[in-house]
Design brief:
By secondary structure, this protein is an alpha+beta fold. It has 12 helices and 24 strands. It is globular, with a radius of gyration of 20 Å.
Length: 396
């Protein structure tokens, strides 16, 4: 029987950064109509979308009005800073939310996703506690031991996250968490420090018929709570990878059980690899920043896989091209209308590529682009990506 699904669909991106831009490009290659929304004009995805909408997505009334005006078939959240109860309202009216409104609500809140993983599903996580004052933070840290990790319950891109090394660091950690918290949520999660050998992201794709697909594991390194480089495949024993896949399948399965039908999409599931096994860390119900490496590592990037799942299109076997890596290009100062030098040098080495995101403003440590590389080994690919990233300079 012929496929009777009618395209194009109207896809509304809620968040239009560099990850949303790649989703928009993948959507337009398949003839979809893209509406890019973000809190500021000129965001990367807006530069390639059919329509743009500037709206504060934490303002429920403004977000509701923007969605009503756009008339989307599918809402695709690409950031955490969204009034997620509005997504649930539209999902109840028949507009698809990727992967589900429930997934967006739970994963934007570290307490909710931790309780789902640790208590409801019984996944292994770091020991943890919550605190609503600096005094409670001190008591939790004393109990869990030093060092410990302090994170706001709600924040994005590592904002407000720090390592509390001694009791003298408690007040500083509390103040930093409050400064980075979103929506003035005066609550933090305190995690016992995991001695790990490697952090990985396991890209997990779920389709509406319940099938699950995994990409090769991605190793990554973070600073200030934000990723600096990633590489794939991350070397890990087969039994440890299987344990991570089982955990990822369970937690994404729970998040795809929507109130109005099963959800679909790509998830970035993060784990610590410790000496005694794998530990669940966090999860994003959308393409993951560490997964930018898939733009060079395989035949179908995480963005294309996400879109295929969202649109109920077939997920093919993904062909990998060998060891690959990414390295971020960071701004070192505030620059309006940034320009770039060094692109020719960065691309001179065979097996390298670049993505310059096109953000209209730079500030210190803001991710402005990424260098990509293939190599004979992951170490070689990482070195090539780092050299390429170091070639690029941001100028005013």
């Amino acid at each position: 029987m012929a496929d009777q699904t009618v395209f194009p669909k109207r896809l509304m991106l809620l968040g239009s950064g560099e990850l949303g831009k790649e989703v928009a490009l993948a959507a337009q290659r398949l003839g979809q109509y893209v509406i890019a929304a973000d809190s500021y004009d000129g965001a990367p995805a807006m530069q390639v979308a059919d329509e743009r909408v500037v709206v504060s997505m934490l303002d429920a009334d403004a977000l509701r009005a923007a969605i009503l005006a756009a008339k989307p078939d599918v809402l695709i959240p690409e950031v955490e800073a969204i009034a997620t109860h509005v997504l649930a309202e539209f999902e109840a009216q028949g507009i698809r939310v990727s992967p589900t409104a429930k997934a967006a609500q739970i994963t934007m809140n570290r307490e909710m996703i931790r309780e789902l993983a640790a208590k409801d599903l019984g996944l292994r996580t770091a020991p943890y506690a919550y605190a609503t004052t600096a005094e409670e933070l001190r008591a939790a840290a004393d109990k869990l031991g030093y060092p410990c990790v302090v994170k706001p319950i709600m924040s994005s891109s590592g904002k407000g996250q720090s390592v509390c090394k001694t009791p003298a660091d408690v007040q500083v950690a509390w103040d930093y968490a409050m400064a980075g918290a979103r929506a003035k949520n005066l609550r933090v999660i305190v995690e016992g420090f995991i001695q790990f050998d490697l952090e990985i992201t396991l890209l997990t794709v779920r389709t509406r018929d319940g099938k699950v697909h995994f990409c090769d594991p991605i190793g990554h390194r973070q600073e200030r709570g934000d990723y600096q480089e990633s590489w794939m495949p991350a070397a890990m024993p087969a039994d440890v990878l299987k344990a991570a896949q089982d955990m990822a399948e369970r937690v994404t399965g729970a998040l795809c059980k929507g109130e109005h039908g099963p959800g679909a999409g790509l998830f970035g599931v993060e784990f610590f690899l410790a000496a005694d096994g794998v530990v669940f860390s966090e999860l994003s119900p959308r393409p993951h920043d560490t997964g930018l490496v898939t733009l060079i590592s395989q035949s179908m990037s995480e963005f294309e896989l996400h879109l295929r799942a969202v649109l109920d299109l077939p997920i093919p076997d993904v062909r990998t091209y060998g060891p690959a890596a990414s390295a971020v290009i960071l701004a070192d100062r505030t620059v309006e209308a940034p320009r770039y030098t060094g692109l020719a040098a960065a691309l001179a080495e065979p097996g390298t590529d670049l993505r310059i995101f096109g953000k209209p403003r730079a500030h210190k440590f803001r991710r402005m682009g990424v260098a990509l590389a293939l190599g004979a080994t992951t170490d070689e690919a990482r070195a090539k990506a780092k050299r390429a990233a170091d070639c690029v300079a941001i100028v005013g």
